[in-house]
Protein: DUF7835 domain-containing protein
Amino acid sequence: MATQPSDPDHVTERCGACGGETTHDVRVEIRTESQKEENAEFSREPYRITTCNECGAENATRMNNA
Ligand SMILES: [Zn+2]
Structure:
């Protein structure tokens, strides 16, 4: 339980919902995009989910945009 100077699970970003530079909780979520079983293993995309600590708005950004 080392205390880290900067918490990697929290970032300060601009929130589109409340319009301020706010602290966000960050997590990564695997979301399945396709219902087709044959493609299931290729369709699970990691999303970076940020939750604004001010207004609670969630924003999901797909991580592999390439
Ligand atoms: Zn906000």
